[in-house]
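[User]
Protein folding is very new to me. Any chance you could explain this protein sequence and its structure tokens? I have pasted everything here:
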Amino acid sequence: MIKTLTNDELDQLLNFVGYGRLDADLWFIGYQEHMPPNTDIQPRLELEQVEDSAEALEKLGITLQSFAENNLHNAWHGMAEIMLRLAKKSPTETNIRAYLTRLLGRSNGAVLIANLLPIPVNMDGSWNFGSEIPQYAAPSDYYEEVKPLRMNFFREILHQQLPKVIIAHGKEAWADYQELFKDFKLDEHGEFLVGWDANTVVVLTEELSSEAMIGKYEDLVTLILENSLEIDVEKHTGPTPLSKAELARQQKEAAKKVAAAKRKPATKHNASDPYCVCAQCLSYEKK
């Protein structure tokens, strides 16, 4: 008997982000996961909002090989190649397989793997959960309601976490990615669309496992290295770092103090100005 999801359970599915670590310097964003036909949605209720990929596979009852081959048409293989190239390691099949097994999407790894839409569909893109999710019995209901909600959701966590690089892959979804990253003013850059702000570079690519990406990984990595802040491609060690949002706040605060220090001393104290540069605040002695 098919179990119908409650509204609370549906909310849990819709709030799923992905695999890896939210504070990663590099995010991969796809459109949606693709899973084998007749996949049971119930085990996904066991997933945390951001899940370790190995633990997720155990909860879902599938193997890494099966998941990597089905999920986004084997895009994980391309992600592993990108990370190896960023780390200046040879993207051999042996190294890619080792990275897939040990680091990609892991809670102790260096990436976040997310999808714009949170619930997987069949390999052919068909909607398989009309009975389990009657709230979205028709796929059009799901896409029309969930897509704008998820765009706002991702913009919020993007502003909180400030990743250094976001790779959004799958050319068929470029229109949606352009809407998601509308503040980045994406422009053509060779085979890619690229946009920047003060903290993050966004790159739109073909599907990472597609033939269209053959021979382009080196160009993509070069583009990232030339246009982003330094990326941590290894496991974080030592004390837990400040969140990127807190670090940005502290940097902004420090910049204000530096700017205030360059201002000419004022003759009157301004109690409403936290960076007042009167003689009193600067410890000047009145003559």
